[in-house]
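Write out the 3D structure for:
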Amino acid sequence: MIKESIVAQARTWIGTKFHHQGRLKKNFQHSGGCDCIGLLIGVFQELNIDFNSRFNGFIDKTNYSRLVTDAILVSATEKFFVKKNLSDISCGDIALFSFSNKFSPQHVGIIGENKGSFTVIHAYLQVGFVVEHILDDYWKQHLYGLYEL
């Protein structure tokens, strides 16, 4: 049930503008602005998942560079979520992607599903917005890891 809620809530962020280190969802008066981490944090906050109890006093940090060059994203994800096998992909999973360095992921998204195909919901810099699209071969080859609550 929670995984379906994660996907449904993430979809409400589609169309929010990309903004590095942003945490603001679009609304009728503002185009908002978030990055991939901001999307994930915003979705969990909107679902009233208590960061202090669930995530051991998690403090959101926004002093990171656009290009992650170390394993900080992996260590944070593995601290708060349960790692899964890539073959066990399902809706609501948190997906890490690695592009420039296969040992150090730089991007995070939420796995969805549409008409029998897996999708990824994420703040996509190259498009400039939060989007959902098919998890095609390109994205699959850059998939670093899957995690769940």
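The first helix runs from residue 2 to 11.
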